Amino acid sequence: MTDTMAAAGPVPAGPGGRSLLVGAALFAICAVAVMAGARYGLLLALGLGFGITLEGLRFGFAGPWRAMILRREPAGLLAQLLAIGLVAVVAIPLLAAHPAELTGAHAPVGWSMVGGAFVFGICMQLVLGCGSGTLVNAGSGNAVAAVALPFFAVGSFLGAYNIDWWNGFGLAPLVVLSGTSGLAVTLAGLAAVALLAVWL
Predict the structure, then answer these.
(1) Under a CB-based contact definition with an 8 Å cutoff, are residues 32 and 41 in contact?
(2) DSSP classification of residue 61
(3) Which of 96, 102, 116, 186 could connect to 179 by a Cys-Cys bridge, CB 3.0–4.6 Å?
(4) What residues have CB less than 8 Å from 117, skipping those under 6 apart?
(5) Residue 77: is it exposed, middle or buried by C-beta count within 10 angstroms (0-12/13-18/19+)?
(6) Do 139 and 28 form a contact (C-beta atoms < 8 A)?
């Protein structure tokens, strides 16, 4: 997403554009806090704060992979792998220790998912971003992303609404690695990808 954002049109440059963005965010926070309460205003402030920070830092998912493929720069990819590993170290033991309160999102892979992945990849190239990248680009003022975003939302809703029909094309057996073994496999896989990236 990092590299594609530059091609798709980033946020307005200069202090004026940033001031306008921050002013609009503060206005939205105050409006929500007045109409819906301080709790929702705080939640909006956290969301906008994270979003503006990540946008300002040009944070993205696809950019580090592109840098690794095109320029053999593994730093961004290693940072992503580290982040996934840190989350796994916390999340997987929590899921195993509190099965009544916390549940993982387990679903089998099916033919519809394989086909959807190809369609998703093609559309990513057309709009220069994944789902989160399209959202960021639309918020940054990119016209292509602004047009694609509502269709992305409607398509996602219809796909989830008709999930039983899509699953009728066939599903592979559900495989879940949890607990200590799941954590070990996850960390080993991340380490293998990291070593391959450094070797390349």
Answers:
(1) yes
(2) S
(3) 96
(4) none
(5) buried
(6) no
10-residue block means of pLDDT along the chain (200 residues)?
44 57 76 80 81 69 80 87 90 85 83 89 81 78 86 89 89 84 90 90
Domain boundaries, the chain: 1-60+110-147
Question: Of 58, 65, 90, whose CA–CA distance to 80 is shortest?
Answer: 65
User: Number of C-alpha atoms within 13 angstroms, CB side, residue 2?
Assistant: 16
- The answer to whether residues 187 and 130 touch, using CB atoms and an 8 Å cutoff, is no
Contact (CB, 8 A) for 85 and 193: no
Residue 98 to residue 92: CA distance in whole angstroms: 10
pLDDT number for residue 5: 44
Distance, in Å, from the CA atom of 140 to the CA atom of 147, rounded to the nearest integer, reads 13
26 with 52: CB under 8 angstroms? Answer: no
pTM above the 0.85 mark?
Answer: no
| Alpha helix segments (H runs only) across 37-178 | 38-56, 62-71, 75-97, 111-127, 131-139, 143-161, 163-167
CB atoms within 10 A of CB 130: 19
Q: Among candidates 40, 11, 12, 16, which has minimal Cα distance to 28?
A: 40
- What pLDDT is stored for residue 57 in this prediction? 65
Backbone angles phi, psi at 102, to 5 degrees: -120, 135
Backbone angles phi, psi at 183, to 5 degrees: -65, -40
